[in-house]
Amino acid sequence: MTDSIADDRGPGINRRGNAEVRAGLLWALLVAAGVALAAISVHQGWRLGVGAAPFTGTYDLKIDAGTILAPIVAAVVLAGVRRGLTDTLPWRWLLLAGYVAALAWSLALAAVDGGNGLSQSVTHDYWPDVPAVDSHPGGFLRDFVANADSYTTATATHPPGPVLLLWLVDRAGITAPAAIGFVIAALGCLTVPLVAVAVRSLCSDLSARRVVPILALAPYAIWVGVSMEGVVSALGAACLAVGVVGSEPGRKPVWAAGAGLLLGVAALFDYSVAWLGLSVLAVYFVRRRPLLNVISAVASLAPLLLMQIWGFVWPSGLSSARQRSFHGVGGDRSWLLWIFLDILLLLIACGPAVVLAFQRFRMTPGWPFLIGSVSAVAFGLAFGLSRGEVEGVWLPYFPWLLVPAVAPEIRGQPAGPVPLILVAIGALTAVVVEAILRSPW
Which value, in Å, is the radius of gyration of the alpha carbons in the chain? Predict the structure, then answer.
């Protein structure tokens, strides 16, 4: 390692601690103001479209044995970080530990919901439309857009990838709701090691190591195990990881082709994930390998063209999804009000570490990671495409927004320490939200 844990010891440690406290207080004030706005909006009957604003669902406090598991998992992870394991574990073992921690955290949060959390991903959203595939996926793809009105809102506003994945899981003999939910969570948690690989390549080894616990215990893990967007997040992270590593000096262009293929596959699960392609583009230009953009762009079209041969035309699906979104869910909701509530959702989902990340984004060489995520969020807010439910919709972008949290206070210095206080507050926030919110996710 080029950096070491000793870099955190010195006269600057109190200053860094104070920065964490200030970031935590600012986050708390913003969240309190947002929650107050949401409460006033619901009380006044403003056009929100949901009764548990800013979340989708209802508020119903529930505390049982499962509620104890999540704090235990968080405490174990934080204790490991406190002992310096993020800096001393061999890289491969750290990636495995980060994945296991993220999966344990996601499953523990699902247990807070009384053990039914994992089954929600298959009893809601896409699962009711799996029988439409039957044994003829080609026919399903060919008639996907024409039959959009007969599908659930989630299926109609997404490409056919989520339904086809659940169909494959069902065909593999995994039919128990909790088992399918576990598969989705296991796939979604791959995001943590994949993001770490990308950060290590573009930033530094120490930056990657210290971002792992921030991602593993992020509050948005509530929705990783119960939302197909967690799979989209993993695919997007894989695209960026392959693209970043593939742009290193001496790497062959086949890496860029792999990044493009992964982006194309991700676009078959979610229309908006294409925004992450901007981050790949920025990385190529930072690395002074702009011609890789051509390779990745062409490769990204391959999965879409293959689906078109089988009958699904991606642009037609996007147009149909937009019509369903504007004339269905969200079309009657106040655009201006939801701008503020969606930002509140982002703050809660990312935890207080996102405030520290925002304050240091100019200090990180990982700024290309922010291009795609910030663009996606800004576009959704500006054009009224995100009017609630962004706890799932923005899931592929949340991890990248947290990367600058470990940036140094001064450019050129070693990575900053893991903000343990902020990570702990975020973990506590996740437990509280899961305990009081009954969501269809």
Answer: 21
Q: How many domains does the chain have?
A: 1
Residue 293 identity (one-letter amino acid)? N
Q: pLDDT by residue for the chain (441 residues), tens digit each?
A: 344 443 444 445 566 668 889 999 999 999 999 989 888 887 777 767 666 777 776 777 777 666 789 999 999 999 999 999 999 999 999 999 999 999 999 999 988 765 566 766 666 788 899 999 988 898 999 999 999 889 988 899 899 999 999 999 999 998 888 888 899 999 999 999 999 999 999 999 999 999 999 999 999 999 887 888 999 999 999 999 999 999 999 999 999 999 999 999 999 999 999 999 999 999 999 999 999 999 999 999 999 999 999 999 999 999 988 887 666 555 567 777 888 888 999 999 999 999 999 999 988 999 999 999 999 999 888 876 676 678 888 999 999 999 999 998 877 788 889 999 999 999 999 999 888 877 766
Burial of 91 (0-12, 13-18, 19+ CB in 10 A): middle
Q: Are 390 and 380 in contact (CB under 8 A)?
A: yes
Q: Which of 165, 102, 172 lies closest to 137, judged by CA? A: 165
Eight-class DSSP state of 384? T
Within the chain, what is the greatest distance between any pair of CA atoms?
67
The verdict on pTM exceeding 0.90 is yes
Q: The domain containing residue 179 runs over which residues?
A: 6-438
Q: How far is CA 109 from CA 103, 181, 230, 239, in A?
A: 10, 13, 15, 27
For residues 381 and 342, what is the distance between their CA atoms, to the nearest angstrom?
8
Q: Which amino acid is at 252?
A: K
Residue 292 covered by a domain: yes
Which residue has tokens 């229309």? 271
Residue found by looking up tokens 């405490």 in the block: 75
> Locate tokens 């799932």: which residue?
392
Instruction: Name the 3-class secondary structure at 329.
Output: coil
> Backbone phi, then psi, for 124, in 5-degree steps?
-130, 165
Residue 397 φ then ψ, to 5°: -100, -25
The answer as to whether 174 is a domain residue is yes
φ, ψ for residue 112 (rounded to 5)? -60, -30
Residue 75 lies in a domain: yes
1 lies in some domain: no
**Angle at CA 143, nearest 5°, toward 140 and 146?**
140
Helix axes 335-350, 353-360, angle to 10 degrees: 100
DSSP 59: E
Query: Could you give the CA distance from residue 20 to residue 41 in angstroms, rounded to a whole number?
Result: 31
